[in-house]
Design brief:
The complex is a heterodimer. By secondary structure, chain A is an alpha/beta fold. Chain A folds into three domains: about 170 residues, Thiamin diphosphate (ThDP)-binding fold, Pyr/PP domains (Rossmann fold); about 170 residues, 3-Layer(aba) Sandwich (Rossmann fold); about 180 residues, Rossmann fold. In chain A, strands 3-2-4-5-7-6 form a six-stranded parallel β-sheet, sandwiched between helices. Chain A has a six-stranded parallel β-sheet with strand order 11-10-9-12-13-14, with helices on both faces. In chain A, helix 2 links the parallel strand 2 and strand 3. The longest helix of chain A has 18 residues. Chain B has two domains: about 80 residues, Alpha-Beta Plaits (2-Layer Sandwich), CATH 3.30.70.260; about 70 residues, ACT-like. Chain A, domain 2 (Alpha-Beta Plaits). By secondary structure, chain B is an alpha+beta fold. In chain B, a hairpin with a 3-residue loop joins strand 6 and strand 7. Chain B is about 30% helix and about 40% strand. The chains are: A alpha/beta, B alpha+beta. The interface between A and B is medium-sized, with 17 and 21 residues.
Chain lengths: ~575, ~160
């Protein structure tokens, strides 16, 4: 049977098992919205801004192992989506974005709502396509899903001109897909895996450093098996949290700019480091030259060859899917007669414990006068029994959530790590809540970030999403204020948020429940009450200490051992 | 160090801009870039001349390989290879210079493709160094126009880049 291009696009989504399509209609996608209207399988979530559609699809993908899908119109539709696409790209999130384009005969004429979508998104997608023939729609969408989720995942854009979405052709959804120039690796090189095992077994001061790749590839179980077998210390990156249980005694906390002292010191002073699905980025190892001062052997396991030896030299590179690589590494280790030297390992753990004491772990001085933001997160952890999905925006609140909420499972901590996109948290929480309708979903945000996509409170009302928003309101763009205090002589240039709205009234205006919490003694009762309201979105406006800073801190450009602890200031 | 990298890439709209965009986005240097379809019309072959440390060149080849449209990459400078560039030079050919330019073209094994009362257009093929030295060998004020293709490269003997 012949179908229109628009009908074919929707049929493709059905074939891919797409549950939710996050989007916003407009002229160039009218045919596609018409086809969407005439079916029930794919449910559309109408956001209030295209950026939110992408973040919602992103949250949906991060909290599951599915591809997030979004639909936007041409011109401003796709330009609004770019921040979301770049966010997904930096964190390697599988996503397919369909955008409308002006009719193919009008491309290049500066038509109404025309923008070069393929050109504008090229640097921030895994791949993109401009459809030129209605016959190409089905095979291209098939390719888009395959590209998005295979290898190192990422967003893929399919741009469909309006005239083509209205042309007819036979609908055949390809069963298989092959792209001759694209062959992602599966298994790792066995020789290298054996070398890695030898290095690990001979290590005196070993360290395991695992990133977001573990979460994305579903290799948390393999990682946990490896860490337990070896008895080595492990740290997670911001993106890797939950890839190994945070309450496990071998977990030394998050590393990096706001990582624990012991995690950073152990990274700096280990003799064998194994990096798993991580990329040694600037917020993780700080200054590359400083990091390289201490000689250590590095094993790097990653799906993407370009992540290996990008910032640091590596002794044993292993390119492959984490699951089969870790399975093989585990098998080699189990078959080996050799064991890590127990005395060396005990001495190393003793050293790490000493660093823990010296660095003070994660600690802050609580107050009965003013709400400490860390206390809010600790209480959130307590009353949700560590079982919530937590999304965050970007800034101090993000770091406190990462430090004080202990994630024992992967895909529970959802934040924009690479791009650092303010406005991510609330729309991402929408995608999470839709994927997990019965789950507890908390969005930890600040009064700055939440205002970047606050219009989504309306979407939450329409689709009955009972997200719990915890806004740590310190009246400052807190992380900017912190850097201005440390590095810019207390000159708080444009970081004070004046003329804030009454968030309680604002939440109520959108049809939700609003709470303003001013006293430390009210934090726990308020959270309990909010989370007891299972069917409602509750917006909690916590009035927190504006002077609180995130510690420990490795200042930008410094080395991992050049950490600033709170009492140093 | 100077490297010459060959790339086989899908002959599709936008493929060239993906490569050019990669170089600018990651702050890699491009000295020259040539591209044309191969005997297999679905593939284009690109020769990129770039400069960078070993680490940068390693990243360049990895990043090129990561592009979905890129089918194969070879750093020709890692082994024996041939490199040729084509140049067309239009020179002012009057009076005594007219004979001198003819002689120079012969010495460099160039060919005069076009002759007018006052000009010659000379075709020269060779390595970048040879083309540079030709230009240095004739008086600067005689050069009216130069156009160069940038280097094309190929491995020697059994060093073959093919799908």
């Amino acid at each position: 049977m012949e179908l229109t291009g628009a009908e074919i696009a929707i049929r493709c989504l059905q074939e891919e098992g797409v549950e939710y399509l996050f989007g916003y209609p407009g002229g160039a996608v009218l045919h596609i919205y018409d086809a969407l209207f005439q079916q029930e399988q794919v449910k559309h979530i109408l956001v209030r801004h295209e950026q939110a559609a992408i973040h919602a699809a992103d949250g949906y993908a991060r909290s599951s192992d599915k591809v997030g899908v979004a639909l936007v119109t041409s011109g401003p539709g796709i330009t609004n989506a770019v921040t979301g696409i770049a966010t997904a790209y930096m964190d390697s999130i599988p996503m397919v974005v369909i955008s409308g384009q002006v009719p193919s005969y009008a491309i290049g004429e500066d038509a109404f709502q025309e923008v070069d979508a393929v050109g504008i998104t090229r640097p921030c997608v895994k791949h993109n396509f401009l459809i030129k023939d209605v016959k190409d729609i089905a095979p291209t969408i098939k390719k888009a899903f395959y590209l998005a989720k295979s290898g190192r995942p990422g967003p893929v854009l399919v741009d469909i001109p309006k005239d083509i979405s209205n042309q007819r052709t036979e609908f055949i959804y390809p069963e298989n897909v092959s792209i001759r120039a694209y062959n992602p690796v599966g298994k790792g090189d066995s020789t290298q895996i054996k070398r890695a095992a030898q290095l690990l077994l001979g290590a005196k001061r070993p360290m395991i450093y695992a990133g977001g790749g573990v979460v994305l590839s579903g290799a948390a179980e393999q990682l946990t098996g490896l860490v337990r077998l070896l008895g080595f210390p492990i740290t997670n990156t911001l993106m890797g949290l939950g890839g190994f249980p945070a309450t496990d005694k071998q977990f030394v906390g998050m590393l990096g700019m706001h990582g624990t002292y012991e995690a950073n010191m152990a990274m700096q002073h280990c003799d064998v480091l194994v990096a798993i699905g991580a990329r040694f980025d600037d917020r993780v190892i700080g200054n590359v030259e400083h990091f390289a001062q201490v000689p250590r052997k590095i094993i790097h396991i990653d799906i993407d060859p370009s992540s290996i030896a990008k910032r640091v030299k590596v002794d044993v590179p292993i390119v492959g899917e984490l699951k089969p690589v870790l399975d093989e590494l585990l098998a080699v280790l189990r078959a080996s007669k050799q064991q890590p030297d127990a005395a060396d390992l005990a001495a190393w753990w003793k050293q790490i414990k000493e660093w823990n004491v010296a660095g003070g772990g994660l600690r802050y001085k609580n107050s009965t006068e003013i709400i400490k933001p860390q206390y809010v997160i600790e209480t959130l952890y307590k009353i949700t029994h560590g079982d919530a999905f937590v999304t965050s925006d970007v800034g101090q609140h993000q770091m406190w959530a990462a430090q004080y909420y202990k994630f024992d499972q992967p895909r529970r901590w959802i934040n924009s790590g690479g791009l650092g996109t303010m406005g991510f948290g609330l729309p991402a929480a929408m995608g999470v809540q839709l994927k997990h309708p019965e789950a507890t979903v908390a969005c930890v945000t600040g009064e700055g970030s939440i205002q970047m996509n606050i219009q989504e409170l309306s979407t939450c009302k329409q689709f009955h999403l009972p997200i719990k928003v915890l806004s740590l309101n310190n009246r400052y763009l807190g992380m900017v204020r912190q850097w201005q205090q440390f590095f810019h002589g207390d000159r708080y240039s444009e970081s004070y948020m004046d003329a804030l709205p009454d968030f309680v009234k604002l939440a109520e205006a959108y049809g939700h429940v609003g709470m303003r919490i001013e006293q430390p003694s009210d934090v726990e009762p308020a959270l309990k009450e909010a989370f007891a309201r299972k069917k409602e979105l509750v917006f909690m406006d916590f009035q927190t200490d504006p002077k609180e800073n995130v510690f420990p801190m490795v200042p930008g450009g410094k080395g991992l051992s050049e950490v600033v602890l709170s009492e140093d200031l | 160090m100077r490297h010459i990298i060959s790339v086989l890439i899908e002959n599709e709209a936008g493929a060239l801009s993906r490569v050019a965009g990669l170089f600018s986005a990651r702050n890699y240097n491009i000295e020259s870039l040539t591209v044309a379809p191969t005997e297999d019309a679905t593939l284009s072959r690109m020769t990129i001349v770039t400069r960078g440390s070993d680490a940068v060149i390693e990243q360049i080849t990895k990043q090129l390989n990561k592009l979905i449209d890129v089918a194969a990459v070879m750093d020709l400078s890692e082994g024996e290879h041939l490199e040729r560039e084509l140049m067309l030079v239009k020179v002012r050919a009057e009076g005594a210079a007219r004979d001198e330019l003819k002689r120079m073209a012969d010495i460099f094994r160039g060919r005069i493709l076009d002759v007018s009362a006052n000009t010659y257009t000379i075709e020269l093929t060779g390595t970048r160094v040879k083309l540079d030295s030709f230009l240095q060998s004739i008086a600067r004020d005689l050069i009216l126009e130069t156009v160069r293709t940038g280097a094309s490269g190929i491995g020697r003997g059994e060093r073959i880049l093919k799908l």
